[in-house]
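Input sequence (78 aa), recorded before submission:
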Amino acid sequence: MTGFLDNDEDRWTLASEELALLTGMMDPGRLGCAFQLKFIQAQGRFPERGEIPGMHGVAVLAAQLGVEADTLAGYDPL
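Predicted structure, token format:
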């Protein structure tokens, strides 16, 4: 997924309404759902299973959620 929003922090920034959607979830679920939400907004589709996200974007999301970026490894959307 080369170049996918990788250095555009504004596109990775969660709005307060988006953050509210993630309350009550465990950390992998919060980060995974946040990633999918931002991916869909940018690409107009869900990520394919196994599609590698840009790590800069994941790091930006993780920082907003107060988790480590490698938390995404524990996310299984199915």
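Checked by second reader. Residues 27-43 form the longest helix (17 residues).
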